[in-house]
Amino acid sequence: SLWGWGVNKNADQGTGDYEFMHPKPVAMQKPISVSLNGEAVAMNNGVITKDGQNFVPLRSVFEKLGAVVAYKETSGQKMVTITRQNGDQKTVIQVNAKTGATSVNGAEVKLANNPFNVSGTVYLPLRFISEKLGATVEWLPAEERIAITMK
After folding, report:
1. Residue 59's domain is classified under what CATH number?
2. By the 8 A CB rule, do 54 and 124 touch?
3. 84-120 burial, b for 16+ CB within 10 Å, e for fewer?
4. What pairs with residue 6 in β-bridges?
5. Does residue 108 belong to any structural domain of this protein?
6. What does the pLDDT look like over 32-90, one tens digit per residue?
7. For residue 13, what pLDDT is reported?
8. Structure pTM?
9. Which residue from 20, 30, 55, 85 puts its CA 20 to 30 A from 3's CA?
10. Residue whose C-alpha is closest to residue 100's, from 147, 138, 53, 136
C-alpha cells in the first residue's frame, strides 16, 4: 500500500482532483520509465500522463535527442524554444507554456493537450516533440516504458 498526504491543488497530475478526503483509495499513476536508443533516461521529475498523453519535464529528454532547449519568460509569456540541427535540416519548435500556442518551423500546430506547469517545472508532450525532432516513439505497456529511438 502507498499512502500520500496532501492536496493536488492544480488537479494536473494523474487522476488528481480537488478533494482532500476520499471514502476509498484513489488510483495513482504507475511510474513510467523512458529509454533512448535502449538506455534508460534519468529524470529528476517523472512522466505525467494527462488525458492519455505523456508529458515530460522541459529538459529531461529533448536535450538528449540533440536539441538545444531555451526558456524565456517575459510579460506574461512563457516561451520554450527547442532547436535541433540535423545536417542541413533545422527544426525549431516553439511552445508558449502558458497558452499552449505551438509552432513547428513557423507553422502553427494544435496540440491535443496543452503543456502545463507543476511546482515551477514545465511539462511538454513527449511523443509530439520527439517525433518532430526525428525520433520514433513506442509505448511498451508490459514494461511501463516509453522507448525512443533516434537515428
Report:
1. 3.30.457.10
2. no
3. beeeeeebbbbbebbeebbebeeeeeeeeebbbeeee
4. none
5. yes
6. 899 999 999 988 888 888 888 999 988 889 999 999 999 999 887 889 999 999 889 99
7. 47
8. 0.78
9. 55
10. 53
